[in-house]
Amino acid sequence: MIGKQFSKLTIISFSHYDKRHRKHYLCRCECGKEKTIQMSLLKSGNTKSCGCLVKENSFKQQYVFKGAANGKWKGGKTHHDGYVRVIDKAHPRSNHDGYVYEHILVMEKMLGRTLVKGEVIHHCNGNKLDNRPYNLRLFPSNSEHTKYHFKLKAQNYRSADSGSGVKALLNPMKEVCDNT
Is residue 24 classed exposed, middle or buried when 0-12, 13-18 and 19+ CB atoms within 10 A define those classes? Predict the structure, then answer.
């Protein structure tokens, strides 16, 4: 067995039997590191190196298969917290991965400027994936946006009274965005 090679590992010497009477051998990897490995793992191919192969492969995947080169690439779009995010590393509101919420980009394009800190975008139909321009409305602050939601709920609550004495809350998101 000594001198036999299994992938990147070469057996140097017998090491020991474990408590289940499995053989362990001292092996030298092609990178120069020595490690004790169970014989059955060498024979099955489950262990191919001292660990350097895993690091090497993860390094390759991390740096070679980014963006369109990656088999799971979806054009730079992803979903997070129910919103669509788009890759735009240069945008001032992009996160550490370079993604920015799509509704922000759509609204900024409509306005012809970047959003001011504190401005909030509202999805008129309540669908956070629907970023069509006519479905978005800009509020100067979160408090104005919240007031708007309370106003919608009150209007829908009053209009839901059908004369039966029972009031049902309608969907507060069923509205038309006037964008004025």
Answer: middle
